[in-house]
Amino acid sequence: MASHLLSCFEIPTSITGKIDSLLLKFFWSHSGIQGMHWVGKRKMHLPRGMGGLGIRCISTLNKDLLMKQVWRIVTHPQLLISKVYSARARFLSPTPSQERRYSGRQSYGLRGLLHADALLSTGCNWKVGIGNSILAGSSNWVNGKSPTSHPGVLLATEKDWTVNLFILPQTLTWDVEKVHQCFIPADASTIISMEFPAL
């Protein structure tokens, strides 16, 4: 199967399962005679470094290529494909507080890209940067979750915090005192151990 199709459309699992079984039959057969399957399917799909045979699972390859396409749409907004699909949907919103939006009916290609976008966004980490658009109290910016504030902090003040309040503007490093004052110790140590915003 051409890799072009795998990078454009989400192939149904029934079809990818049949292709996988055909590949495995071809691997074990000898001059047209069906051979004995000496190793299980899971072991066949494991990489060689992990003790497998390194035969690619077609459904996994399909998801990988679609995620690569989504990443290309996000990082190269000047491309025609980026302009076409970005007019219909927002991929990998820059901050966790922004919701994805969809407009109209979804084509088969867009549906696969949206599923790949959901997979990609669960596995992506992002840097804080200057932090002026990230709400510190409600956005999931600390290892995929929202940090918990100290019990003494008022909710009225917490809702207006942005992450740049916890960054020293001169050195672009974390303001350790302020982080420890505002968040519980476990989350404060996680924030301080995060990469410096300037990097």
In which range does the helix fraction lie?
A: 40-55%
- Return the string of H and E elements: HHHHHHHEEHH
Unreliable stretches covering 5 or more consecutive residues: 94-99
* DSSP strand content: under 5%
| Beginning-to-end CA distance, first to last residue | 41 Å
List the total number of helices. Answer: 9
On the 0-100 scale, what is the average pLDDT?
79
Structural account:
By secondary structure, the protein is mainly α. The chain folds into 2 domains: 3-123, no CATH class; 127-199. Helices cover 45% and strands 2% of the residues. It has helices at residues 3-8, 13-28, 41-45, 58-75, 80-88, 108-123, 155-158, 176-182, 185-193, and strands spanning 167-168, 173-174. The chain has a two-stranded antiparallel ribbon. It is elongated, with a radius of gyration of 23 Å.
